[in-house]
Amino acid sequence: MTEEATATVDATETDELTETDESAQTDQPTQADEPAETRLTGAQLLEREGDVAADYLEGLLDIADLDGDIDIDVEGNRAMVSVLEANAGDLGHLVGTKGKVLDALQELTRLAATRETGERSRLMLDVAGFRAQRRVELERVAEDAVAEAQRTAAPVRLDPMTPFERKIVHDVIAKAGLVSESEGEEPARRVVVRTA
């Protein structure tokens, strides 16, 4: 390809990218469009994230004709949003096998919050108590791994886990005074527990 042909292709691609970017823009203002002095910070931002997430999830529940109550909370530096079942078993398909659908729904909800606030969202979403129940199970797994590592003085390798799950395990192990690290690549990344 000659330099002239390359320049023509590059210019065409640039024009297409510009057209795509312009068509993707909306007239909806976001926090990023506002002057710095009017931007939300700290707890206000987390509360706003929770409100945006709740609105997004209410719309989704309405479209899917599902019943659920939405609870918003702030824990530490994260907005926590829970969709509670009105009738047991109604929201199971929003969790999916091993929480896969819940993970995807959380990412979509984070995107909705990011779009409205202009800030990266780290909110946590729970549906039908799945993450709360999983937290209890993982704490038990971590405690068993701590006991085994202390008993054998050998490294204990746990099954592969999601980042959310690994964080829970790392916290329990640190609280017990042991050392843990993650090894491997996603989706086979796992926690290894060591005595020191």
Q: What is the number of helical segments per DSSP (H or I, 4+ residues)?
A: 5
Give the strand order, joined by hyphens, for the main sheet: 1-2-3
Total strand segments:
6
What value does the Rg take, in angstroms?
22 Å
Order of helices and strands: HHEEHEHEHEE
Short précis:
This protein has helices at 3-24, 42-64, 100-117, 130-152, 163-175; strands at residues 68-75, 78-85, 124-127, 156-157, 179-183, 190-194.
Characterization of the model:
The strands form two sheets. Strands 1-2-3 form a three-stranded mixed beta sheet, with helices on both faces. A three-stranded antiparallel beta sheet has the order 4-6-5. It has helices at 3-24, 42-64, 100-117, 130-152, 163-175, and strands at residues 68-75, 78-85, 124-127, 156-157, 179-183, 190-194. The N and C termini lie far apart (59 Å). The chain is of the alpha+beta class and 196 residues long. The longest helix is centred in the first third of the chain and has 23 residues, at 42-64.
Indicate the topology.
Elements: H1 3-24, H2 42-64, E1 68-75, E2 78-85, H3 100-117, E3 124-127, H4 130-152, E4 156-157, H5 163-175, E5 179-183, E6 190-194
Parallel strand pairs: 2-3
Antiparallel strand pairs: 1-2, 4-6, 5-6
Helix pairs in contact: 2-3, 4-5
Q: Keywords for this structure?
A:
three-stranded mixed beta sheet; three-stranded antiparallel beta sheet; 5 helices; 196 residues; single chain; alpha+beta
